[in-house]
Structures are given as structure tokens and as C-alpha cells.
């Protein structure tokens, strides 16, 4: 098992945001967390990444390849974050440092976690940018000079450059338009599979989830209310919250008779 | 703002200040001009609570009378700074690019002139007086206010809710008063209370330099200036006004911090619930 | 049917450039459109297509080459008749309710502001303003008593967007412009807001709506006509059915491809 979460609870200033959540991600598996905004799904990923605000109290257990992450301290956590875990967030213009060029941004995790020569680092960054479909002349640009889709590609390159074993993606395509959204999702799943890593994918949209994840958990009010094969959840949702999410996704999917012949 | 220790402390000190200033207009423990050549540089006693100075005048009475002058300077300076600062901010967010750019250049150019220099220049035609302090500080702090509040004012001016107001047909003045000023109020309040503190310090400094309040007018700067010459021999006499100035400046700064929190619904849940 | 009437809003050969010298780039190229009373036109395009600029030009907030007319009167400059008419008859809804509502204003104050601006001209008393504002909040499906005193940050994204919609409709506008009103909301909230818009259109059959969106899933439920914008050019225009089932431009086909399962 890459990632095992057991009885995870998060409380922030007296408010229970995550309640007794348990799930697991097998090696090389792509698992989804789905819920509407405010359901606490992002708090779960923050707890895993050790990025919760200081006043938060975390109970339960999060194990990464058998190693307990709850209460290990910021220094060790920071080390694990870069080398074993990679993270991609919703808004690339927020998550990329505006004063770093694309090449500097992507090489940052390498500098922090590996002792590589300048040449080796440069080579790794170039091949990573190539993998996410960005050509060489982007390397010297700043985030503000890129489109939203290009920015998210840079964020993916930054998350994957250290070849992490677990990748956590929190609504990585929500801010993008439909065409870009599709290409980013396909790129992410393809790269994750190629590197053999596992993926924890957070979204509010079943339409996206069904394309990315074999298995999913539905989160509501900080609770896992349902889980299982994504297709089964889509076909036979049991809980009313799941039914609502499936219905919304179906309504908002395009229904046209005969397009593009 | 009463809810925090800092807020309570600051507010108490400031209230005592205002009370003393008002009281000094009608009563002081000893008459100000009751000097006694036999009783100079006295230690604190029953008659002279904080001792006497080099002319034998009662230190406590002079500090009390000075608090009125300093309060006046403080209020006038803040009023000047607020008026100038808000005028400049209004120009900065103007829809006319010419007005906006002119105000920005003007602020950036004038802000580089030190307040002391302005005071020295003003003292040439005006002589040493309260007006010099108020004008010099008001100008300097007003420019500072415009500069510090500029980014937030521009952010508010370019926000979607201002566009929404424009689309609804709101006039520029209405947008300034109802959207932009309230949104920069925390910054303005903090900046103005810092200015109030600085004006107390500036009064002491400028009076010491001889361009502040004219000699004979009681003020904390005056008390400091007359006692500081013999600080090696009679440290206590210079300590009192120094301590007072420090205490008041500290309170004004703490007051600024708490008022910033108190009027900001983002950080004040009580205010949100009250509305 | 509506083609014989005078359009409520018409834009003819709108072109817009940003920057100067060799940095000059064209964001809109000869865009024309017509909007009739009671209809809903969707302007569909990805990020960088120029759609948001077009909205600003239509509202007279930005100058451009070409002409915009409202009820046959030119919208050019703050003193033109068209601009004045637009000001009292248009409502605007933004993508992000948290930036389009003043964070220091309660919901009731935000919603009632457009009425208070015109209180003298419309001869409205404070009581009438309050009543109409509360009614507007009810019309968008908010419990007015509960929400009147709430600040944006005490609301979910969907609730805050409803407040923004209430503000836009409180003056009973003849023209509503919604710039990506759904894209910051999760799917359930999107679905609810679509229903709200449908109800609003039923209740106010003469109000015309311009919906700017990249999401064809949303557009199919709301628009009568679609105008596809890409790189500042109109790619195609037609009825919703026509465009979705028989797209003529390559860009539209790519867009449809991206959202199909």
C-alpha cells in the first residue's frame, strides 16, 4: 500500500472538519476523493501533505509506505513532501512562485532533495518539461507570461520532477477551460502511469473523476459516506449526496445527438 | 477594541491624556508661572509631585499644561494628514489618467523631502509656532498616508465590485465614499494613529531645535528641552517628560493596531454578526 | 421571428488592440453580434479568446473600434444616450462572487445598492428598496431573512453567487450579462444556479441574457443562440442546437470533442 489513512480526524478551532476518515491507495492506483465545496476533501489532502494551519489538531493515522506521518514534525515532513510526495493544486497562478522562471521552478525540488550537478539538474528539468509537452523556449519565461494551461503543465512538471511515489492533485483542472482541462487530465494520468506512481485525485466533478480514477470515495461533511469502483458509483449511487453529485455531472455533460460526424 | 489587553492599556492612557489636557485649562496643582528661585531642581515632594525645574516651576503642572498643547498639535496634524491623504488617494483612483498619474508623481516626489526640512523652511516666515509643526507634519504624514494606502486603494478601485457599481450607475464620488474608503480604512486608521504618535515625537524634536512651539508656551517638548541640558546632574526632571512622550506614543501605536482590527470585518467576527 | 425587430443590444465590427508598437496585439477582430429582447446568447470561448474584453466593451466600460448600440442608441463615452440607458437597465454578474461583492457589505446592502443609486430617479422610499431587495433575494432562491445580514465570507460560493445575481436583477434590468457565472462553483451549485436562471427567465420573459462561458454543459441548458469566439474572432454563430449538433468550425468541434465522454 502506498498510502493508508485510518481514522483521520481534523479539528480547527473547535470545528470538526474531517471525521474519522479511512481509505487507502494501492501502489500504482489512481484513487479519487469527490465532494462538493466545503465537504472537507481538501483538508484531507492538506493533512496528508502536512500543510494544515498550526491551530489544527490531527488524530488518527496516515501511513506512507508504512511510515507514520501524523506528528513526525515539519522538518521530516518537508523532506518527504518533496521526495516521496508530489502535489498539484487548483490554481497554478497561486502555486507557482511569480519571481522564478519555469526552469528555476521545476528544478527547485531537485535542489532541495537531491545532490545533483548543475548539468544533471538541467538535463532532468529539460526532459521533464518535454514530458509535460512544453518546448524549450518556455524554460526562461515567468509564470505570468504563460497561459493557465501552460502554468498547470509547469506545476505538474514541478510535482513529478523528483519521481515521487505518491502524487496528490487537488482540483487541478477546475480553473481551466474545457479543452485545456481535457488535455491536462490526459497528460496527468499518462505521466502518473508511466512513472508507476499512485495518484490521489480530488474533485467535485464526477465527469472528470470517471476519466481519471478506478476507485473513488465520496466525502460529505468531513465523512467518507460511500466508496468503491468509480463506474459502479456512477451507475448505482447509494447515498443521496452521491446521487446528487452524479445527477449534477450528468446534467452538465453535453447531450447532443449527432455532432462531429 | 476593549477586548484586548493592548486595546485597554492604550485607551486608558489616551483617556487620561485627554482628561488632563481639558483639566489643565482650568486647574493645575501649582500656578504655571509661580516660579521660586529658592526651589530649583527640587526632588518630588508633597508640594511638587514631580519636583521642580531650573526656574523652580512645578514640573507636573507644566506637563499637564503641555498635554493640552500636544493634544491640539496631535489632532490638528491628524486632521491635516487625513484631509491631504484622502484627497490624494481620491486623485490616485480617479478615472482620469492625467489626474491619477499626476497625483502619483507628486506624492513620490514630495515624500522624499524630510519633515524637519519642511519645518525649518516654514519657520522662516512663520517663526517658531504650533502652526509650523502642524503644517510640516500634516504635509509629511498626509503624503505618507497616500503612499501607504495607494496599493490597497488601487486594488479596491479595480475590483469587480467597483465595476459592478459603475454598471449600476454609481458616480465616482459615491464609489469612493462607499467602496474605496471603507476598504482602505484599516490602513488609514493605523497610519493616522502612527502619525499621531509621530507628531508627539516631532513636537519634542522641533521644539528642541527651536522651530516648534514658541518659548513660554507649555509643551512636552518644551519641558524636555529645558531640562535636558542638565540631565547629568538632575536626570529625574528630564525623565518625566521623556517617559510621558514614550508612553503616549506607545499607546497611540497600540491604539492604531486595535482600531485596525476593530473596524475590519474580515478579522472581527463580532462586527460581522452585528451587521 | 425576432429577426425583424430592432435588437436590444447590437455590436458591429468590434476590434480591440492592447499595447503599443511591436507589443501591440489584437484581442478582438471584427466581432459583430445582435441580442434580442427575451433571448439568451452564449458567447463561448476559452481563456484568452477575448470574451471578457467583449463584455466590457458591450457595457461601455472600455473603448474600441466599431460601434455598440443599445436600443438603437450609440454607446460611446459616459455621456452618450446609449450608455445612460444601459446604466439604468443592465445588470452584470461576474465569475467570482467573492471579488464581485464588497467584503465589507452585508448581502442586503449589496443587493439594495443599485436601487439606492437610483432611489431619487425612481422615487423609491427606503421601505420599498428594502422590500424589493428582499424579494430579489427570494427570487434567486435565498432565504432573505437569513441571508440579509450575512457577509460574503459567511456564504458558500453558490450562495454568494446568488447574492450577486440578486444584485444584478434587483433593478429589473432588461439586459443581464453573466461573465462565467458558474465556473467558480462546484457542479451541484452550478446545477442549482442554472435552475435559478431558468426560473428568472420565465418570470421576466422580456429580459435578455448574455452568458459568457467556456462550459458547453452549462450553455446547452441556458442559451438560445451560441456565438463561438476563438483568438478574438467569431468562429461561428447559430442556434444552440445547430452549433452543438452541426458545428462548422474546427475550434467548435475540438470543444465538443473535449467534453464528450
TrEMBL record, chain A:
The organism's place on the tree of life at top rank: Bacteria
GO CC term, one of those recorded: plasma membrane
Occurrences of domain ABC transporter (ranges): 3-246
One Pfam family in the UniProt entry: ABC_tran
GO molecular function, one term: ATP binding
Cell compartments where the protein resides: Cell membrane
Keyword Coiled coil appears in the UniProt entry: no
Family: Belongs to the ABC transporter superfamily.
Name this polypeptide is given: Diguanylate cyclase
TrEMBL record, chain B:
Gene3D superfamilies registered for this protein in UniProt: MetI-like
ABC transmembrane type-1 domain: residues covered: 67-256
Swiss-Prot/TrEMBL keywords: Cell membrane, Membrane, Transmembrane, Transmembrane helix, Transport
Protein topology in the membrane: Multi-pass membrane protein
Gene Ontology cellular component annotations, sorted alphabetically: plasma membrane
CDD domains associated with the record: TM_PBP2
InterPro entries linked: BP-dependent_transpt_permease, MetI-like, MetI-like_sf
Predominant location category: membrane
Transmembrane regions listed in the UniProt entry: 9-27, 70-93, 105-124, 130-149, 233-255
Protein name per the record: ABC transporter permease
Biological source species: Bombiscardovia coagulans
Source taxonomy: Bacteria, Bacillati, Actinomycetota, Actinomycetes, Bifidobacteriales
Automatic annotation (TrEMBL), chain C:
Ranges for domain ABC transporter: 9-256
Protein's GO biological process: transmembrane transport
SMART domains: AAA
SUPFAM superfamilies cross-referenced by the UniProt entry: P-loop containing nucleoside triphosphate hydrolases
The UniProt record lists the keyword Transport: yes
Record's keyword terms, sorted: ATP-binding, Nucleotide-binding, Transport
Keyword Transport set for record: yes
GO MF annotation list: ATP binding; ATP hydrolysis activity
Family statement: Belongs to the ABC transporter superfamily.
Matching PANTHER family: D,D-DIPEPTIDE TRANSPORT ATP-BINDING PROTEIN DDPF-RELATED (PTHR43776:SF7), TRANSPORT ATP-BINDING PROTEIN (PTHR43776)
Name listed for the protein in its UniProt record: Peptide ABC transporter ATPase
Organism: Bombiscardovia coagulans
Amino acid at each position: 500500500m502506498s498510502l493508508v489513512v485510518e481514522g483521520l480526524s481534523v479539528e480547527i478551532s473547535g470545528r470538526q472538519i474531517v471525521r474519522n476518515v479511512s481509505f487507502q491507495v494501492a501502489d500504482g492506483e489512481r484513487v479519487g476523493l469527490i465532494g462538493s465545496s466545503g465537504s472537507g476533501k481538501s483538508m484531507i489532502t492538506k493533512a496528508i501533505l502536512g500543510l494544515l494551519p498550526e491551530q489544527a489538531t490531527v488524530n488518527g493515522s496516515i501511513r506512507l509506505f508504512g511510515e507514520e506521518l501524523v506528528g513526525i514534525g515539519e522538518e521530516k515532513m518537508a523532506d518527504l513532501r518533496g521526495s516521496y510526495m508530489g502535489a498539484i493544486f487548483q490554481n497554478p497562478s497561486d502555486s507557482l512562485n511569480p519571481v522564478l522562471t519555469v526552469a528555476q521552478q521545476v528544478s527547485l525540488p531537485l535542489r532541495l532533495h537531491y545532490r545533483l550537478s548543475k548539468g544533471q539538474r538541467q538535463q532532468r528539468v529539460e526532459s521533464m518539461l518535454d514530458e509535460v509537452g512544453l518546448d524549450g523556449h518556455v524554460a526562461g519565461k515567468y509564470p505570468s507570461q504563460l497561459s493557465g494551461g501552460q502554468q498547470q503543465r509547469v506545476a505538474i512538471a514541478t510535482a513529478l520532477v523528483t519521481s515521487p511515489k505518491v502524487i496528490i492533485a487537488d482540483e487541478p483542472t477546475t480553473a481551466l477551460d474545457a479543452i485545456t482541462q481535457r488535455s491536462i487530465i490526459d497528460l496527468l494520468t499518462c505521466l502518473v502511469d508511466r512513472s508507476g506512481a499512485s495518484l490521489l485525485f480530488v474533485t467535485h466533478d464526477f465527469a472528470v473523476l470517471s476519466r481519471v480514477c478506478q476507485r473513488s470515495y465520496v466525502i460529505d461533511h468531513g465523512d467518507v459516506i460511500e466508496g468503491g469502483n468509480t463506474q459502479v458509483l456512477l451507475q448505482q449511487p447509494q447515498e443521496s449526496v452521491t446521487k446528487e453529485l452524479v445527477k449534477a455531472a450528468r446534467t452538465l455533460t453535453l447531450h447532443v445527438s449527432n455532432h462531429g460526424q | 477594541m476593549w477586548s484586548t489587553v493592548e486595546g485597554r492599556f492604550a485607551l486608558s492612557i489616551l483617556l487620561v491624556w485627554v482628561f488632563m489636557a481639558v483639566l489643565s485649562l482650568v486647574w493645575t496643582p501649582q500656578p504655571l508661572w509661580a516660579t521660586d528661585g529658592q526651589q530649583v531642581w527640587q526632588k518630588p515632594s508633597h508640594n511638587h509631585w514631580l519636583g521642580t525645574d531650573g526656574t523652580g516651576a512645578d514640573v507636573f503642572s507644566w506637563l499637564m499644561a503641555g498635554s493640552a498643547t500636544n493634544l491640539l498639535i496631535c489632532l490638528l496634524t491628524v486632521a491635516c494628514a487625513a484631509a491631504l491623504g484622502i484627497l490624494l488617494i481620491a486623485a490616485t483612483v480617479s478615472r482620469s489618467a492625467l489626474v491619477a498619474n499626476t497625483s502619483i508623481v507628486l506624492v513620490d516626489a514630495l515624500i522624499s523631502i524630510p519633515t524637519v526640512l519642511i519645518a525649518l523652511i516654514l519657520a522662516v516666515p512663520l517663526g517658531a509656532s504650533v502652526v509650523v509643526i502642524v503644517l510640516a507634519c500634516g504635509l509629511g504624514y498626509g503624503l505618507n498616508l497616500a503612499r501607504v494606502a495607494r496599493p490597497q486603494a488601487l486594488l479596491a478601485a479595480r475590483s469587480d465590485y467597483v465595476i459592478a457599481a459603475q454598471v449600476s450607475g454609481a458616480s465616482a464620488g459615491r464609489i469612493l465614499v462607499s467602496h474605496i474608503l471603507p476598504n482602505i480604512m484599516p490602513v488609514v486608521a493605523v497610519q493616522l494613529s502612527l502619525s499621531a504618535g509621530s507628531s508627539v515625537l516631532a513636537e519634542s524634536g522641533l521644539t528642541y531645535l527651536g522651530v516648534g512651539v514658541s518659548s513660554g508656551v507649555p509643551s512636552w517638548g518644551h519641558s524636555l528641552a529645558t531640562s535636558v541640558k542638565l540631565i547629568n546632574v538632575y536626570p529625574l526632571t528630564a525623565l518625566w517628560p521623556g517617559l510621558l512622550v514614550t508612553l503616549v506614543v506607545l499607546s497611540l501605536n497600540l491604539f492604531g493596531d486595535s482600531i485596525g482590527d476593530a473596524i475590519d470585518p474580515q478579522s472581527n467576527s463580532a462586527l460581522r454578526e452585528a451587521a | 421571428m425576432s429577426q425583424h425587430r430592432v435588437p436590444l443590444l447590437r455590436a458591429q465590427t468590434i476590434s480591440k488592440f492592447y499595447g503599443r508598437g511591436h507589443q501591440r496585439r489584437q484581442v478582438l477582430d471584427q466581432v459583430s453580434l445582435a441580442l434580442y429582447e427575451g433571448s439568451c446568447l452564449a458567447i463561448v470561448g476559452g481563456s484568452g479568446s477575448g470574451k471578457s474584453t467583449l463584455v466590457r466593451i458591450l457595457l461601455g466600460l472600455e473603448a474600441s473600434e466599431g460601434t455598440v448600440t443599445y436600443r438603437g442608441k450609440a454607446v460611446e463615452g459616459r455621456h452618450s444616450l446609449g450608455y445612460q440607458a444601459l446604466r439604468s437597465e443592465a445588470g452584470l454578474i461576474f465569475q467570482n462572487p467573492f471579488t464581485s461583492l464588497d467584503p465589507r457589505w452585508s448581502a442586503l446592502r449589496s443587493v439594495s445598492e443599485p436601487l439606492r443609486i437610483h432611489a431619487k430617479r425612481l422615487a423609491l422610499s427606503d421601505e420599498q428598496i428594502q422590500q424589493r431587495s428582499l424579494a430579489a433575494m427570494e427570487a434567486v432562491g435565498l432565504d432573505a431573512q437569513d441571508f440579509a445580514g450575512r457577509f460574503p465570507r459567511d456564504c458558500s460560493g453558490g450562495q454568494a453567487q446568488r447574492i450577486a445575481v440578486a444584485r444584478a436583477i434587483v433593478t429589473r434590468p432588461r439586459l443581464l450579462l453573466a461573465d462565467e457565472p458558474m465556473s467558480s462553483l462546484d457542479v451541484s451549485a452550478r446545477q442549482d444556479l442554472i435552475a435559478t436562471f431558468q426560473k428568472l427567465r420565465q418570470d421576466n420573459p422580456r429580459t435578455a441574457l448574455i452568458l459568457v462561458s467556456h462550459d458547453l454543459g452549462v450553455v446547452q441548458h441556458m442559451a438560445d443562440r451560441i456565438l463561438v469566439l476563438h483568438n478574438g474572432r467569431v468562429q461561428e454563430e447559430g442556434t444552440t442546437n445547430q452549433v452543438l449538433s452541426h458545428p462548422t468550425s474546427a475550434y467548435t468541434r475540438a470543444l465538443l470533442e473535449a467534453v464528450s465522454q
